[in-house]
Amino acid sequence: MSESSEYLPDIVYDAAQVSALDARFVDRFGVDGFELMQRAASAAYDELAHVWAMPGQMVVFCGPGDNGADGFLIADLARAGGWRVRLVCLVDPDSYTGAAATAVATWRDGGGEIDTFDDRAVHTDVIVDALLGTGVNRDVHGDFAAAIERINAAGDAGTGVFSVDIPSGIDAATGHVWHCAVRADATTTFIGLKLGLLTGQGPAHCGALAFSGLNAPDALYADQPYTARRLVHRRLRTALRPRARNVHKGDNGHVLCVGGNRGMGGSIRLSAEAALRSGAGLVSVACHADHAGPMSQARPELMCRSVDDGAELVPLLAAADVVAIGPGLGRADDDNDWGGALWQAALDCDRPLVVDADALNRLAAQPVERGHWILTPHPGEAARLLGCATAEVVDDRVAAVQAIARRFNAVVVLKGAGSLIATPEELWLCTDGNPGMAVGGMGDLLTGVIAALLGQGLSLSDAASLGVYIHARAGDRAAEAAGQRGLLPSDLLEWIRYFVNPGRL
Predict the structure, then answer these.
(1) What's the pTM?
(2) 191 and 96 within one domain
(3) Which run of H or of E encompasses 474?
(4) Share of the chain above pLDDT 90, in %
(5) Which residues form the domain of 34?
């Protein structure tokens, strides 16, 4: 394993913040610009040679600026490493200036030729994408779009694709795809970890992600602005302390799960079982009469109660420490709005709420600023909460999650690849989890996990962030056991239990 692939940093930056770090590295710490390019090229080539260990044929696509210049130096290193290298430049090679011009000269001085782009199919073993880097902020057109299409077509046919710093066409700040973007098998990024690689469309395009700080000193990062922090083992491993020998079930929180309208009992059962497996001392379920009996028989540890209206829910709310509401609650346009009465009763109680699914849709229809709650929308629900198109949420997930947090005075979990958690203190990012978790019911589990942690005394912020992390780690372990495709929410339950116990994180 190469040095750069051994870890990812905790701190995550947007594109402007990383550019500021680059400039600070040169201006404040006296690093020569060409030396910095050489370090980046060396780190990238080391990672490439780790992923594709046997030299063969390589095509390097270079664009303007420092990213393109990195491509020239990578090509030079690859040629020295035994690769048969063809370099394709989409700009005039003589247009490079400063350190970038020195990189071009290095390739030429070694006898390297420079081809122009001709929009033909690419047949090679590995392609290096050094086209656009972090600076792209508008749709990609012309030869650059054609080159990206050729790279992706070759990748689909089995050619390895390696991106330098970020796949071309991906917005470094948001993960938005600017018309088209390279789909890489591996990416090595430098100096600062870019948010766009980790959320939005970024994770689907960057492949295996490696990082190199290019030997930057810790002082480079001191007191510098950043966008988010990653959820990592080091922060969370001590969040749940071992329980005292004389602990009572009442000390571990009583979670009330509200939902399960007619025909939708499975979702609230998943939430309730996840709460049990996450360590809640007591878990009650308030659901439609159709489901209370069968649910109690299937899982006797759950205290299931059928409720007909909000008045019957009130004493159950008063007995609980935390309320999880939404899974299977039903839409507001039902002829008999059973869920609406329960939703209003929950809003009126003084208990902390974890709000998901149909409860979020009701909140979007009639917004209130209650406070003391955690909202857990997926992008579609987030769009309804904000009154915008889902595409707008996907294009800038950071702006969306922070806007919801402000509008509803809430801690907010925006689910999806690179889940984001907006708290009053930080913006957190989860880089765990896998595509197998894209199946109905996974969000219901998360609701129960978060509610159980809240019931055990964690703050709103810690319950939301730790809950997302545990849920994602459990999904990864379950996928490791039998694969991603066909993964069921119930497959995570044993792993949720594993990760909530001290020392397991």
Answers:
(1) 0.94
(2) yes
(3) helix 460-482
(4) 90
(5) 3-228
